[in-house]
């Protein structure tokens, strides 16, 4: 489990070119690697990385949370015997946003 700042969310459910698609993506903030800065190379600051999800369900659960927010991203490494990839199992906001309570309407 790693903690990231989620800066964007994207999902799509529908049909495109005759194929049914159910996809989701997170966009997370990462620090640029400055460990090899020197005379011929320099890197400083942040970048955004796209993380593909297995479907749109995680994005649906997070849509109501104002961006950006910190979240624990739980992953698992899987392999087909030749190539490995990381699969996102869950995304858990660090500080869940509490629902806004409104005063009851007068009749």
Question: What does this 3D model show about the protein?
Answer:
The chain is built from one helix and five strands. With 107 residues, the protein is mainly beta. The protein has a single domain, classed as Beta Barrel (OB fold (Dihydrolipoamide Acetyltransferase, E2P)), CATH 2.40.50. A five-stranded antiparallel sheet has the order 3-2-1-4-5. 8% of the residues are buried.
Topology, element by element:
Elements (H helix, E strand, L loop, with lengths): L1 E15 L2 E13 L14 E8 L3 H6 L6 E11 L4 E10 L14
Describe the structure using short key phrases:
107 residues; mainly beta; OB fold (Dihydrolipoamide Acetyltransferase, E2P); five-stranded antiparallel β-sheet; 1 helix
Distance between the termini: 49 Å
Largest sheet: 5 strands, antiparallel
Specify the overall morphology: extended
Portion of residues within helices: under 10%
Main sheet strand line-up: 3-2-1-4-5
**Which structural class best describes the helix and strand composition?**
mainly beta
CA-atom Rg in angstroms: 19 Å
Could you give the order of the helices and strands? EEEHEE
CATH class: Mainly Beta
CATH architectural designation: Beta Barrel
CATH topology annotation: OB fold (Dihydrolipoamide Acetyltransferase, E2P)
What share of residues are in beta strands?
over 45%
Which parts are unreliable, with pLDDT below 50 for 5 consecutive residues or more?
A: none
